[in-house]
Amino acid sequence: MVKLPIVQKEIKGILYVVATPIGNLSDITLRALSILSGVEVIAAEHVQTAHKLLSRHGITTRVIPVHQHNENSAVGKIISFLNNNQSVALITDAGTPAISDPGAKLVRGVREQGFNVVPIPGANAAISALSASGLLAPHFFFYGFLPVKSAERQRRLAALKSLYACILVFYEAPHRILETVADMARTFGTERDVTFARELTKVFETIHTCALGDAITWLQADANRLRGEFVLLLAAIEPPLQTEFLNPQAEQILAILQKDLSLKHAVQLTAEITGENRKKLYAIALEKQKAAL
Prior knowledge:
By secondary structure, this protein is of the alpha/beta class. It has helices spanning 30-38, 47-56, 71-83, 104-112, 125-133, 150-158, 177-188, 212-220, 248-260, 263-274, 278-292; strands at 14-18, 41-44, 62-65, 88-91, 116-120, 139-145, 166-172, 193-198, 206-211, 230-234. The chain has three domains: 14-123, Tetrapyrrole methylase, N-terminal domain (Cobalt-precorrin-4 Transmethylase, domain 1), CATH 3.40.1010; 126-234, 2-Layer Sandwich (Methyltransferase, Cobalt-precorrin-4 Transmethylase, Domain 2), CATH 3.30.950; 243-292. It is 41% helix and 18% strand. It is elongated. One of its GO terms (cellular component) is cytoplasm.
């Protein structure tokens, strides 16, 4: 067993938000183990699930249930522990509390009462999937779980269509994965790439990228691919060129230069003269060239 750091017993009345493994029970930090063994109470989404993790690491701290159905009423109970100078660790079944999991209401209530809330970082399914996807984009947008009903799900997806140059990250349950992917294809088109990251850190971990149009076929090719919790990553796309807003003077200069110069040279000179976007100019020049054939 790993020797744990000494817990600072003199620091009391703190709510620790502790990230736990998303599958492999070894994926927990030394600091998290130290906190879990040192606090007076652990508030867990499910007591039985928590005991599996704690038993693995020889931790015998008292565990009480705090989940989505009792989170509101649990706030007062947790605050009473903190008022008595006892510290509490908040954990969920897997990953980081309050990230598409219970915990945010409790954290808010504790902070409003003036108590310290300390994050203990660790495993997160979305970040793990992103790190291994190979998708290239400067930004990502984490949505979490989409609505259960298809009509509402499609409305939410449609609202995300304008997020360009941004990877879209979703969580999904296995019994809804086919419906969700079908709605994504309807909303974003069949050519956009999607990465499936399922059963992360577990024995049957799978990370697969394909076009949305091929996704249903891939999922149905093996019954095992429909099992386990999913992270879905939609590849970023570039915004459409706004050619309709091209400066009329730039368009005129481009047309004149195209008569005597190559397309590339005409675009380059027009961009230098007018300051217009080169990609936008190139798209218009190419369109006019095709129309003239």
